[in-house]
Amino acid sequence: MSGYVALERLRRFMTDADIARAEAAVPGIKGVFAYVFPYLADMSEGNISLYARGEDYHAAVRRELERRIEELRREYPNAAFLPYVDASPFPEVRAAAMAGLGVIGKNNLLITPKHGSFVFIGLIATDLRLEAEPCAPSVCIGCGACIDACPTGALSVNGFDALRCLSDITQRKGELSENEKRLVKACNTAWGCDICQLVCPMNGGAERTDIEGFATDLITSLRSCDIPPTQAEFKRRYRSRAFSWRGRGPLERNLALLEQE
Ligand code: SF4
Ligand code: SF4
Fold it and tell me: Are 52 and 213 within 8 A, CB to CB?
């Protein structure tokens, strides 16, 4: 799925610094194309979050975006295109929603009609000015199940607090607080957290991915013995995995917590 949103509409959700960064990266920028890439392949229990079980999405989504750029170049040979996966100056979930790909749920995620919230978002900034397409018919019914189920209070009626999110906690380097350790163990997670997605009724009929990198060679769970003793070996073994970007430290720590009596 893809859509387009004009920068004029996105500006009010961006800082001045982000606008300047976007304008420097694509001179004359007029908007962004937004794409969603479904990743749901396997819902079996495990201690690795669903999004991180297959190929690292940074590589897979970038590859998909490069393909889209080739198609766009054939249609618009004189336009500029720049792909972004994470670390973009744009509010990605907001951009995808404004491009008509879904709605933003109370769980702070994009909910799409076909794949629920189990999607990665990729953006292509451009100097093309296009008309926006009509919105896709997806909804958040406001049931609050995600807020009720969130184990850390990161989700509340006031919105989302990333610093309290268990996904963020499991990826942090260094020592965790006693409460954070307790949460990691209680939720049996070595990497990430899917709770607010698993309870969301909008995800009930989410279709599985057809992207090969997200559907094959899955790692559902890890144990301490799967973590090599050196950083170099860890990177060699897991360099194609999203859970490797913080190095071996956070995983080793989290797994030790899970394996404590
Ligand atoms: S990912 Fe987990 S901790 Fe983070 S908001 Fe969702 S339920 Fe809460
Ligand atoms: S669980 Fe309910 S409130 Fe939360 S995102 Fe899903 S539909 Fe919306």
Answer: no
What's the pLDDT at 135? 65
Number of domains the chain is built from: 1
Tell me, using a 6 A CB cutoff, whether residue 150 lines ligand 2. Answer: no
Which amino acid appears at position 6 of this protein?
A
Amino acid at site 125: A
Q: CA–CA separation, 163 vs 261, rounded Å? A: 28
State the residue for tokens 């201690």: 47
| Structural domain harbouring 104 | 1-261
pLDDT digits (tens, 9 = 90+) for 204-254: 999 999 999 999 999 999 999 999 999 999 999 999 999 999 999 999 999
- Assess contact for 145 and 225: CB atoms under 8 A: no
Q: Among all chains, which residue has been given the structure tokens 């050196």?
A: 230
Which residue type sits at 93?
V
Tell me the catalytic residues: 86
Nearest CA to ligand 2 atom 8: 140
pTM of the model: 0.94
